[in-house]
Write a structure and sequence with these properties.
The protein has helices spanning about 30-45, 45-55, 55-60, 70-95, 100-110, 115-125, 125-130, 135-150, 155, 160-185, 200-275, 280-310, 320-340, 355-375, 430-440, 465-475; strands at about 5, 320, 345, 350-355, 380-385, 390-395, 445-450, 455-460. It is α+β, with helices and mostly antiparallel strands.
């Protein structure tokens, strides 16, 4: 069964009921708005029931002074408004409470009329007591209406459009009711001075002003929470990156020491052997050379990784003839493959790409070296082809293959396919270098493999942007 892996680069109210904050600052505004609406709905939960409980008190203050049918009509309107609010809350809990910020916004925009129904019902209450009940009863009724107007302020202020709708509907209905009663009384002088009617207007203005202050305070609190969340996430990621970096470096050094020990020990043994039996120089000298080359190859790879990770590599982006680059690689690696008894085939489509020719040569060269190293019989295919997304270079082999669960591991430092012939040679750094350069140049590398049948590595050669590439490779320092 085929495995497939893709590699692009190695990169580094009641507050308890808050939804998780998004990861980026660009999403701050929607998140804050959504949390303000959630808090509004939590604050509003049941508040309309308290207002409904005051309706019998309002009826009692007007009982005996107003026709009963008028009282019952107003009570029916009030109960209907309360029923709308109950329905709206259940709808919110069922369909919107756990949704994202956009859904919160959708709910209040679609069902804001629900708050208007409550405000309208209480505004109409003026008709049943104003200049119809004793003065004391009127005073108590005015206090109830003022309480109903003020009580939901802390919740509604979290979403100013809703506060304005509620307060405006309530007070406009109130003033219309007062005007209607004054006309009905043929403008006779009421029991109190007309200046008293300025108090509801003042109350109206004070509620809107206080609502703005409450909203600003709540909004600032949620914005602070959001940015604290971003900061904590950033610090957590940096700590995890630091811990991962230390663990990686420890593994890196341990693996390097392990891989270096074998050729260095061999050099020591050959040197002792040559000192004791100088007549064997013809036999021992080639082994010393191979061991020396192995140590040099390891140090070269280590230095390459160190330069990339420290951001000291300077990229030089230019227009590269991919066909010529692959022919040069063919000249370099065909003799190596044929010396191992492998066929080396090429299939090249012409094309050019903006990239760093030295680094791309290194990437594809490492893929070819790996293919030859892990192939015992069969052959290697180096190919390039034009695709819908641009030019792509492929390296095919008939080697030992890679298990699906290890496809991403091959890009880690010192990773080697275990328990297969031919894997003891090399240090497992070639594909780690490919991964770093792939990330820097923006040339994604993907791999497909089949155990015992071989592998194919693909490099997508998209045009590289020099400044972005240099920024990415310099970012490896952090």
């Amino acid at each position: 069964m085929k495995g497939n892996s893709s590699f692009v680069g190695l990169g580094n109210s009641s507050f308890a009921s808050l939804t998780p904050a998004p990861a980026t600052a660009d999403e701050a505004e929607p998140w804050v708005r959504g949390e303000l609406i959630r808090s509004l709905m939590r604050a509003a939960r049941g508040s309309y029931l308290l207002a409904a409980a005051l309706m019998p008190a309002m009826i009692g203050l007007s009982w005996g002074h107003v026709p009963r049918w008028q009282l019952f009509v107003w009570l029916a309107i009030g109960i209907a408004a309360t029923g709308c609010r109950v329905w709206g809350e259940r709808l919110y809990v069922r369909d919107y409470a756990d949704k994202d910020s956009a859904s919160q916004q959708e709910f209040v925009d679609r069902y804001r009329f629900l708050w208007g129904t409550s405000a309208f019902a209480w505004g109409l209450s003026i008709l049943i007591f104003f200049e119809r009940t004793p003065l004391v009863n009127q005073f108590m009724s005015w206090l109830i209406v003022a309480g109903v107007a003020t009580f939901p302020l802390n919740g509604l202020a979290l979403y100013p459009p809703l506060l304005r709708r509620y307060v405006n509907v309530l007070f406009i209905t109130m003033m219309a009711a007062v005007a209607f009663r004054v006309v009905e009384l043929n403008f006779q002088r009421p029991h109190f001075h007309y200046g008293f009617l300025m108090l509801p207007v003042l109350h109206w203005w004070l509620l809107l002003r206080a609502g703005r202050r409450i909203h600003e305070t709540a909004r600032n609190s949620f914005e602070l929470l959001f940015h604290n969340h971003i900061l904590i996430n950033s610090l957590t990621q940096q700590r995890q990156a630091a811990v991962s970096a230390v663990a990686m470096k420890n593994r890196f050094l341990a693996s390097a020491a392990h891989d270096m020990r074998q050729p260095v020990l061999a050099l020591s043994l050959y040197a002792d052997w040559l000192r004791n039996e100088p007549e064997l120089v013809q036999e021992i000298a080639p082994k010393i050379v191979r061991a020396t080359h192995a140590v040099n190859a390891l140090f070269d790879s280590l230095f390459d990784l160190a330069r990339i990770d420290s951001g000291q590599v300077r990229l030089h982006i230019e227009r590269v003839d991919v066909a010529q680059l692959l022919h040069d690689l063919e000249l370099q690696y065909r003799p190596v493959a044929e010396a191992k008894g492998l066929r080396f085939r090429v299939h090249i489509s012409r094309g050019t790409v903006l990239t760093d020719p030295i680094r791309v040569r290194r990437m594809i060269g490492n893929l070819l070296a790996n293919a030859i190293k892990y192939t015992v019989e069969g052959g290697i295919l180096l190919a390039s082809r034009q695709t819908r997304d641009g030019l792509r270079v492929e390296v095919w082999d008939t080697g030992i293959g890679i298990a699906r669960e290890h496809l991403r591991d091959v890009f880690l430092e010192f990773y080697k396919v275990a328990d297969h012939a031919g894997t003891s040679d090399g240090f497992g750094l070639g594909l780690a270098i490919v991964a770093r350069l792939s990330h820097a140049l923006g040339h994604p590398v993907s791999v497909r493999s089949r155990l015992g049948r071989g592998s194919v590595f693909r490099v997508a050669l998209n045009d590289a942007d020099e400044s972005q590439a240099q920024t990415r490779i310099s970012g490896a320092v952090g």
